[in-house]
Amino acid sequence: MSLDYKIIGQRIQEIRLGKCLSQEKLAEMSEMSTSYISRIESAKKRASLESLVKLGNVLGVTVDTFLNGHQINDDNEYKSDLMWII
């Protein structure tokens, strides 16, 4: 199984925008460069676990928020199928 870094970047961007933070402000708060945040959000760079933890702490979410849907037996993977069947 491989991680979809495009989805991870999109989730980071969605949460950042939901909190009305610019890439510059998120970079400052997480002690990263603005260009690194931009490259993570656009999936041009793979975020390290350490970076995901820092971003999660700053954005007030856990790392699994970014990784949702990548885990085996993830309930969210099956909810739409289950709702369709019901």
Short description:
The protein is mostly helical and 86 residues long.
Per-chain topology:
Layout lengths: L4 H14 L4 H8 L3 H8 L7 H11 L3 H5 L7 H11 L1
Helix pairs in contact: 2-3
Structure overview:
The protein is mostly helical and 86 residues long. Helices cover 66% and strands 0% of the residues. It has helices at 5-18, 23-30, 34-41, 49-59, 63-67, 75-85. The longest helix has 14 residues, at 5-18. The mean pLDDT is 87.
Strand count, sense and barrel status of the largest sheet are: none
Which residues form runs of ≥5 with pLDDT under 50? none
- Topology order in helix (H) and strand (E) letters: HHHHHH
| Tally of separate helices | 6
Mean pLDDT level: 87
Shape: globular
Characteristic key phrases:
mainly alpha; 86 residues; single chain; 6 helices
